[in-house]
Write a structure and sequence with these properties.
about 250 residues, 1 helix
């Protein structure tokens, strides 16, 4: 994997109460350059959530990043991928340094609050410039303060949850909204590209897994992406031909 740089981007703190979006204070989120640990695919980095009005650090902690997968991503209708993306699962205990409208109330009793989510690094093919995205979440009491499971048990926010998201700018805003739940058949396992794309320039980097998608248990063949999709994926040969998908489950399409 390449050396991923430090990042600094505008974002949002987000609150939900009874599944309804609440306070959304603007923040600046910085993440130091990830440093590899002794464990395969694991990195650590320091994350700071900063008040953009005065520069005060609101939340801080050391994030553990576990590499999960990489994929090629096409934005415009072009046969070659425009980005290569690396995704890391993220977990961090964040400590409070100052009053913050999107801080969970459990920080009044415990020194840290547990957040989890992911960090993406995207490299524009042919350019030595990375973009990054950070999504972290602190769920309601049932999931993060359950006495049977949590190191910080208690009753603090039974119907409220909290998040951190970046980037969120005027040119690239993050809209907080509720979406209807996914219905239909139960989904299982996943499918992956039989030929995962990579940036055409430079050395090839092996992929542990390919882009995430799901296939219904009873489906005999996956459907191609919709014709009006703004994020269609194309094969590395000339022409907008959707790549084939292969199931992780042996004997299934």
């Amino acid at each position: 994997m390449p050396a991923f740089p430090a990042s600094n981007s505008a974002g949002l703190g987000v609150t939900w109460n009874n599944c309804q979006p609440g306070a959304q204070p603007p923040v600046q989120i910085t993440l130091s350059m990830p440093v590899a640990t002794q464990r395969c695919g694991e990195f650590t980095a320091v994350l700071d959530v900063i008040d953009p009005a005065n520069g005060n650090i609101l939340l801080t902690g050391t994030v553990t990043l576990d590499y999960t997968r990489t994929w090629g991503e096409t934005v415009n209708p072009d046969p070659a991928p425009e980005y290569q993306v690396w995704r890391f699962a993220a977990k961090v205990d964040l400590a409070s340094n100052a009053a913050f409208a999107a801080a969970p109330p459990c920080l009044n009793q415990w020194p840290t609050a547990f957040y989890y989510g992911y960090v993406d690094y995207a490299l524009r093919c042919g350019q030595a410039q990375f973009e990054s995205a950070i999504v972290l979440y602190h769920a309601c009491d049932k999931f993060v303060h359950n006495p049977a499971l949590s190191a910080t048990p208690g009753a603090f926010h039974p119907n409220a949850s909290y998040g951190l998201v970046s980037p969120s700018t005027a040119a690239n805003p993050f809209f907080v909204q509720n979406l209807p739940p996914i219905g239909g058949r139960r989904w299982t396992r996943a499918c992956a590209r039989s030929r995962p794309p990579a940036c055409p320039a430079g050395p090839k980097r092996p992929s542990r897994t390919a882009p995430s998608c799901h296939s219904p248990r009873a489906a005999r063949a996956p459907s191609p992406p919709p014709a009006d999709s703004s994020r269609r994926t194309y094969s590395p040969v000339r022409g907008p031909v959707p790549m084939p998908w292969a199931s992780w489950v042996p004997g299934r399409p």
